[in-house]
Amino acid sequence: MDIQQHRIVITGVGLAAPNADNLTDFRKKLLAGTSEITEIDLRYFGKAPAGICSFPETKYRKKKENKRGTRAGCLGVYCANEALADGNLPIDHYSSSRIGVYVGLTEHGTVETENEVYNISQYDYNVDYWTHHHNPRTVLNNPAGEITMNLGITGPHYAIGAACAAGNASLIQGVQMLRLGEVDMALAGGISESTGSFGIFASFQAQGALGAAEDPRQACRPFDLSRNGIVVSEGACIYVLERLDNALARGAKIYAEIVGYAMNSDARDYVLPYDVRQAECIELALERAGLTPEDIDIINTHATGTKQGDIEECKAIRKIFANAPETYINNTKSIIGHAMGAAGVLELAGNLPAFEDNLVHPTINVKNLDPECSLNNMVIDRPVQLDSVQTILNNSFGMVGINSVVIVKKYQ
After folding, report:
1. Could you tell me which CATH number the domain at 7-249 has?
2. 151-167 pLDDT per residue, tens
3. Which residues does residue 261 pair with via DSSP β-bridges, in sequence order?
4. Handedness of CA 288, 289, 290, 291 (dihedral sign)
5. Cα 343 to the chain's mean position, in Å?
6. Where exactly does CATH 3.40.47.10 map onto the chain?
7. What is the C-alpha separation between 107 and 224, in angstroms, rounded?
8. Which residues of 29-58 are buried (b: 16+ CB within 10 A; e: fewer)?
9. Buried b (16+ CB within 10 A) or exposed e, 229-248
10. Distance from CA of residue 260 to its chain's centroid?
11. What counts of helices (H) and strands (E) characterise the chain?
12. Measured at the alpha carbon of residue 30, what is the angle toward residues 59 and 225, in degrees to the nearest 5?
């Protein structure tokens, strides 16, 4: 049996973004270019722009359970349940032992650790006041494990640590496990709780890579000449992934088919991205999908608003898509900030409805386009209506030189 013949589709989406807690509202906000980035006052650090999620935290789990668990787990439980509801899929449709949970994370545990250090500082650092819940809260598989406990899933669960490429990496993992026959359904996505971490903000500040603006909604401005860094956001997005035959058998709504993907490494620098390896990653994803650059309708860029990062990605895109005049380019982070491990899956989710409405959502906050970031068909300020959208390519890159690309296609 050729495992590559198994076609894998997205049949449910659950999300929590800094401007919406469901895909319908998220899409509306993206098309309107509505940013709800706000300013937070973080302990020890001070004020900074950030993306904070507002969602019904006790819809699927009691307040006491949320208190024992983590913010990441709370986000994950909400999104996993929403994905199943969106996919009209009862949790007992598949055997609980045949469901896999794969969660992409950039960071986990720093928020819990910082909180506990602060708590015991009130008691002269007496560790007798350190919570006994700390270890299970900070292990990397915690958010995925909290999902399995909430839903009674007994199949495999684990975290995919791939910096800011982790969301895409989790989708790739889900596809591979379904094709191998290891599971019959996958809950795959990414989660970020990074807005609670002093260390995240302080580190970006020390690197000169923390975005700022008088109006926090304008702080994330990829491709703009005045861009000055990343806006840290929390968020989560979980997908239901199924083999196509199973999805058709139960009459599922199909958002998209995952037709191509690739991951590679720069092997070059801890922080600085590298356009050559990014271009190779894009080429490999296209090859696996059996597509040419001219076949791609929308590229959703990773661009975070850092000076060199945006330039390197644009160089990679320019190399591959120089002769693709019908390919349009947008950026979601300009509206929601950078949701780290959830970034790739949230940004892909925001573009999936293009298969129905044929609209490319805009990039915002580009007042003066950096000539080094200039690309054909960049969608800025207002959405662009296309005759048809058949394919979307999603870039997601991360520190220590990890690159990921996922290509989805409208189901035919």
Report:
1. 3.40.47.10
2. 999 999 999 999 999 99
3. 406
4. negative
5. 3
6. 7-249, 260-409
7. 28
8. bbbebebbbeebebeebeebbbbbbebebe
9. bbbbbbbbbbbbbbbbebbe
10. 17
11. 14, 15
12. 130
Token pair 């000539």: residue: 371
- What is the token pair recorded at 310? 């945006």
Q: What pTM was computed for the model?
A: 0.96
CA–CA separation, 128 vs 137, rounded Å?
A: 18
Burial group, residue 108, by CB count within 10 angstroms (0-12, 13-18, 19+):
buried
Give Cα 2 to chain centroid, integer Å.
Answer: 30
- Token pair of 21 as six digits: 């807690």
**Catalytic center residues:** 164, 302, 338
Q: Is the pLDDT of residue 60 over 60?
A: yes
- Res 298: pLDDT: 98
Q: DSSP per residue over 266-300, as a string? A: --S-SS---HHHHHHHHHHHHHHHT--GGG--EEE
Q: What token pair was written down for 175?
A: 């596809």
- Report the C-alpha gap between 200 and 198 in whole angstroms: 6
CATH superfamily of 260-409: Thiolase/Chalcone synthase (3.40.47.10)
104's tokens = 């992409």
Q: Average of pLDDT values for 80-100?
A: 98
Give me the count of residues in the chain: 412
β-bridge partners, 126: none
Quote the distance between the C-alpha of residue 98 and its chain's center: 25
Instruction: Report the 10 Å Cβ neighbour count for 335.
Output: 30
